[in-house]
Amino acid sequence: MIEIEALEFHYPQGEFHLSIPHMSVAQGEKVAVIGPSGSGKTTLLNLIAGINRPQQGAVTVADQIVSSCSDARRRDFRISNIGFVFQDFELLDYLNVLDNILHPYRITRALKLTQQVQQRAIDLANGLGIGDKLKRFSGELSQGEKQRAAICRALLPQPQLILADEATGNLDPRNKGRILDLLFENVESHGASLLAVTHDHELLPRFDRVIDFLDFRTEAAA
C-alpha cells in the first residue's frame, strides 16, 4: 500500500530534515508511528498524502507515485483514496457538522454525493456519538466532538488508506477505545491500511506493527 524509498525532505527555512531510507506498509496492515515531538511524524503523513513533496526519493501509495504527480492530481488522489484525520481537525467554521463530514464530496468530481453517502455520514456520526450534533457548527463542539467529526469525514469515502495524526489525543479512555474500534473496523471491512501517529503507548499492542522514528535517525547516522 505504501512504499517509500530514499526520501529526503526539508522545509525552505529552518534546520528540520527528514530522511527515510525505506519504509513500507502492506495492504490491510495497521501500523502505529511513534517518536519524539518534532521528529517529523506529521510531516511523514503529509508526504504520504501528497500535501508536501520530497526533495528526493519516491512516495508510492496504491501503485500511484504520489511524489511525482501534479498538485491537482495529488489533490484528487488524496480525496478519493486517502482518509486523513488531521491533528488540528481542519473543520470549516462556516459549515455545520454534517456538511463538514460531507465536504470532500463537494470539492471534487472524483467523489459523487448520493443519498447513500449522506446516510453513511449520519450512521458514522451516530456510531461515534455525535449524531445529535449534526446541525451544530464546529465552534459549538468540544475538542473531542471536533475530533470525532474529523474522523467521520476521513472514513466517509471508504478510503484505501487511513492516515491518523493523534486521532485519539483529545478523547477520554472510553472514547479512545471506541474510536480505535471504528478505525480498525473500517480498515478490516474494506481491506484498507491504517498508519496512525500516536503518543499513547497504551494503544500500541492493538496494532500489527510499530514504526519508531528513532530507527530512522539510527539508519541515517549509519
Q: Could you walk me through the main structural features you see in this protein, from its secondary elements to its overall organization?
A:
This protein has 222 residues and is α/β, with parallel strands linked by helices. The chain has a single domain (2-221), classed as P-loop containing nucleotide triphosphate hydrolases (Rossmann fold). Helix content is 36%, strand content 22%. It contains seven helices and nine strands, in the order βββαββαβαααβαββα. The protein has a five-stranded parallel β-sheet with strand order 6-7-8-3-9, sandwiched between helices. The chain has a four-stranded antiparallel β-sheet with strand order 2-1-4-5. The longest helix is centred in the last third of the chain and has 18 residues, at 173-190. The two termini are 27 Å apart. The mean pLDDT is 90.
Show the helix and strand layout.
Layout: E1 2-10, E2 17-25, E3 30-34, H1 41-49, E4 56-61, E5 64-65, H2 71-81, E6 82-85, H3 97-102, H4 115-127, H5 143-155, E7 161-165, H6 173-190, E8 193-197, E9 209-212, H7 213-221
Parallel strand pairs: 3-8, 3-9, 6-7, 7-8
Antiparallel strand pairs: 1-2, 1-4, 4-5
